[in-house]
Amino acid sequence: MTEQTRWRQFVHPRYWPSWLGYGFLRVTALLPLPVIWVLGGVIGTLFYLVLGERRRITQINLRLCFPGLDKRARNLIARRHFREFVRASLTVPIAWWGSHRRLTRLVHCRNCHYLDVAYNAGRRIIILAPHFVGMEIGGIYLASSGYSRFANLYKRPKNALLHHLILQRRTRFGGVLIERMEGLRPAIRAIRNGLVFYYLPDQDQGGSGAVFAPFFGVPASTLTSLGRLAQITGAMVIPCFTRQLPWGRGYELILRPPMTNYPSGDDVADAQSMNQEIEAGVREMPEQYFWVHRRFKTRPPGFPPLY
Question: What Rg do the C-alpha atoms of the chain give, in angstroms?
């Protein structure tokens, strides 16, 4: 099927609202980042006021993870999170359609030598990329940087047009997208074939393939797949956090030293090590972590629900 034929399948009226969204994305991709920063702040404040359920989830997560802060301080982080989340969402079109030149101008890498050394040594590499708001532009920036092809997991959306856009735009610099329901085998093949795997394993996906490990001292259902992938492939795990800079000054891609003594062979210990790495990034920029997610939805036996 040619690219033109693929697009023709979306002319049905049921896709017309999606095309309006597509047009909005394309226009947003042309906006200067400072304009997006201001616009996102206004919309984010509105969302904080009207999206009561997501605000409640965010506040519960912050109360559990930062019990030492008073309610006023936690609510300030929550309000800032909604603004940062919307701002980052509005820069996704830049990640999808922005030129390589624009991406390199907007994104600055701190400690990229960790990745350079591993790549030049021929090491297999897994990028541990937790759910910070800037993860989309961070991942596409890395894919555009010439290290090799990248692979990452994604969840197939129900909207076929959006699915087509995700497949097309996230692989525009080369690379492979692996649907999450396919399991780990495609990821193992990709890593063994030399692709850098950009992996986001820090959400609560139920009890299957997970153990309970502390996240800010709270038992959290934590996937064991990162340790298993590293053990099977012999890959080095490099934590990576993407920070959104204030006033539309761009993004900072922050790489941390490769995880040592990892994997250990103990699923619980490895899950805890991963969570500790993520905690370090969250403490550096707490308003930019994905707090609207029910991180503690799955509870250990006998523990009461939190949401």
Answer: 19
- Chain segment 46-66, per-residue pLDDT in tens: 999 999 999 999 999 999 999
Token pair 């008073």: residue = 70
CA distance linking residue 306 with residue 103, whole number of Å: 40
Indicate the pLDDT class of residue 4, thresholds 50, 70 and 90.
low
CA 237 to chain centre: 16
Q: Domain coordinates of the chain in residue numbers?
A: 3-288
In sequence order, the 6+-apart residues with CB closer than 8 A to the CB of 291 are: 57, 58, 61, 62, 77, 78, 81
- Tell me what pLDDT residue 28 has: 93
H helix or E strand, kind and range, residue 79: helix 71-90
- Using CA atoms, how far apart are residues 290 and 282, in angstroms rounded to an integer? 10
Structure tokens at 20: 């309006």
* Token couple for 85: 């989340």
pTM above 0.85?
yes
3-288: which CATH number, 1.10.10, 3.30.70, 3.40.1130, 3.40.50? 3.40.1130
